[in-house]
Amino acid sequence: MNYDKEKEELIYWAKLLNQKGFVSSRSGNISLKVDLDKILITAHDCYLGYLTKEEILCVNLKGEILAGTQEITSEKLLHLDIHNRFKDIKVVLHAHPPHTIAFFHYFSDLDMFSFEAKFYLKNIKVIPQDTPIVTNTLSVLKALENSNIVVLKDHGIVSIGRDFKSSFGLIELLEEQAKVNLLIKDFKKSEAKSIVKEIPPKRYKLLSEEHIQKLIDLVNNDREAQELGKVYDLTCTLAVKNQDLNKAVCFYYEKGMIIKTDDNEDAEFVIIGREEILKKIFNRQLDPFVASTQGKVKTKGDFTKMSKWYPVLVRTFKLWEEAPVE
Q1: pTM higher than 0.70, yes or no?
Q2: Is 218 helix (H, G, I), strand (E, B) or coil?
Q3: Which of 95, 96, 293, 304 is packed most tightly, with the most Cβ within 10 A?
Q4: Which of 61-70, 158-167, 204-213, 306-315 has the lowest mean pLDDT?
Q5: What is the CATH number of the domain that holds 275?
Q6: Burial of 194 (0-12, 13-18, 19+ CB in 10 A)
């Protein structure tokens, strides 16, 4: 059975998610249970707003592909675990509604300003999310036992239901209430604090000895970076290479602590870029992860493995903002 009718339904709701602004670009993924042990699920790296039947795979509840040639979504574990835990659930929607993400980045308690929201959205659970994909589904599953929609902090939402209309409706209602909350908080906020003129930070020559030492000190003297380094066992070598000067600096990490540096280009992970781009990265005019995905810098190494250290690296890059370059 090719499930053409079910695929058309999935495509309809995928496009509606995009039209409503709940997903954009390559974000979001959908699955639909079509049999006791079969689900249709979107492929990795597809655009839900332009989804095709070829980008919908049929898999069993173990994640084995039964029909389709593309790679399954990177959030497959989330979908499979939900379908395996909740037998009556047919639809799983993972989306990124912007007002919901913005609200729960700053606040934890959502006020309900309509009777409908009070009936459907009581006690929204917010799950901490430290990695680009959900690698530990246990907390999500536990939250879904009490509500058919949960928030993944700084990531998005997961909504489940027995049909598309009910699961989509929860996303729509939550996004509406998040937007109302933000508007009211903005309306009530106190007068802005007077702006204090700040002394411009010192700037360094890119990857000079002084710059490198400052980067080391920022990481090694930061309590949060050190705690994260131990928790996530950040032990590796990471090199940054200035393509214009053909010069590299390699940082040796041991449980989050930078123990030494040298000019080794043969590190586990290497970021290679022109001086102009590297300067923008260190001055935070350009995010290092965006620079990589958009091809502005070249990378070497197993960056799937590197994703497990994502929280530590985010903290590291945040600290390095304090050492801007000339």
Answers
A1: no
A2: helix
A3: 95
A4: 306-315
A5: 3.30.1050.10
A6: exposed
